[in-house]
Design goal:
Layout (H helix, E strand, L loop, with lengths): L7 H28 L4 H8 L3 H5 L12 H14 L1 H7 L3 H10 L2 H7 L11 E4 L15 E5 L2 E12 L6 E8 L2 E8 L5 E6 L10 E12 L12 H33 L1 E2 L2 E2 L4 H29 L5 H26 L10 H9 L11
Parallel strand pairs: 1-4
Antiparallel strand pairs: 2-3, 3-7, 4-5, 6-7, 8-9
């Protein structure tokens, strides 16, 4: 029998993050969206909680207590506060976790210690491509071996904090297999282009990145000659995104529930109306169901089992759930839900992006 009750350390961590989300993220999320930037002091404060250093092995400067379940708990609480800030704070994971899970010893010695310092490293990852019917298993970006180097060609979009990154982990198609390559900023052929104009998560800076005959040393292929287990990395990414989606959906549900209890029409709270009460009950059920799917997948990853089936099912269910719950939250507020003074319109716009966010987060 599976037992998903958080242990004492996990409870302390989630309490800390919940307090941070409530007292810091919820106070700046709207201004951050309007200004198009998460305040640096918020990113630093979130980094100082130590989620990534905690997961890194002691040999590379971390605390060596990696757990996908713990990461899922953390992502949900952070995203409850604000999704854009969560993705900004956790951007270093996009390079560190793949290196930790699939990198060579030399790559781990090079890239993991900077992820355990007082300030977040300027690194990111690039998976999503600007194509119709994008599939992470059939990338258009290519990597071709040429002597002691690889030549990369293609384009990426939704690359978080790319304009500040010193290293970008680029995913590319090598002989029909998705592999990853560590590309330093300034490498000839690598161009960080304009900032994406997104419907949601507007406080998160993401960029268009192009690669034109970009040559990287062969040793920069993640995992060396053996390469990576991409399905494993994608499963870890989908757990992170699933947990974040649960956080966004939970935020919408809780706000709608509290609003319905306080909003009085015709002499009684609208929560007393059967249509509203049933809608809120369905929302609560869907959030709890989705959370269990995330936890099951995370638990399988912690056990070293293949969680591809569970991660795929979870993603399909949660992509639908988060939009539906956020939309119902807006419906509960009626006309007020469409006004920017209230947060539910932001949560709905953010929720709509999860179906396109593959590779934008990882634990």
């Amino acid at each position: 029998m599976l037992d998903f009750r958080p242990d004492e350390e996990q409870k302390m961590l989630t309490d800390t993050i919940a307090r941070f989300a409530r007292e810091r993220l919820r106070k700046v999320y709207r201004d951050a969206e309007e200004e198009g930037e998460v305040p640096q002091q918020i990113v630093q404060a979130g980094w100082e909680i130590g989620l990534l250093p905690t997961a890194v092995p002691e040999a590379y400067g971390g605390f060596g207590e990696y757990s996908a379940v713990t990461g899922a708990l953390a992502f949900e609480e952070l995203a409850w506060g604000d999704l854009a800030a969560t993705l900004a704070i956790m951007t270093p994971n996009l390079l560190a976790v793949p290196v930790m899970l699939c990198g060579t010893e030399a790559q781990r010695e090079t890239y993991l210690p900077p992820c355990c310092q007082d300030a977040p490293p300027q690194v990111t990852g690039a998976l999503i491509e600007p194509v119709v019917q994008f599939s992470p298993y059939r990338l258009k970006t290519t990597a071709v071996r040429d002597g002691d180097a690889y030549v990369l060609n293609g384009a990426k979009t939704f690359v978080p904090l790319a304009d500040e990154a010193e290293t970008i982990l680029i995913y590319a198609n090598e002989g029909g297999q998705t592999q990853a390559f560590l590309v330093a900023a300034g490498t000839p052929g690598l161009t960080v282009g304009k900032r994406d104009k997104l419907m949601g998560v507007k406080a998160l800076s993401t960029n268009f990145v192009t690669l034109a005959d970009c040559r990287v040393p062969a040793e920069n292929k993640l995992g060396g000659e053996a390469g990576i287990n991409f399905s494993l990395l994608l499963n870890h990414s989908r757990v992170a995104l699933g947990a974040a989606a649960v956080g966004v959906a939970r935020a919408g549900f809780e706000y709608a529930r509290d609003y319905a209890k306080q909003r009085v029409q015709f002499g009684e709270p609208i929560a007393h109306r059967q249509s509203i009460a049933f809608m809120l009950a369905d929302m609560a059920t869907e959030v709890d169901e989705a959370r269990l799917l995330v936890w099951e997948t995370a638990w399988l990853l912690d056990q070293g089992q293949d969680a591809t089936r569970e991660a795929t099912i979870m993603k399909q269910q949660i992509d639908r759930m988060v939009v539906q719950v956020a939309d119902r939250a807006l419906q509960v507020l009626g006309g007020y839900g469409y006004i920017r003074e209230y947060p539910v319109e932001l949560w709905l716009r953010n929720a709509r992006g999860f179906a396109s966010f593959d590779g934008l987060a990882i634990i």
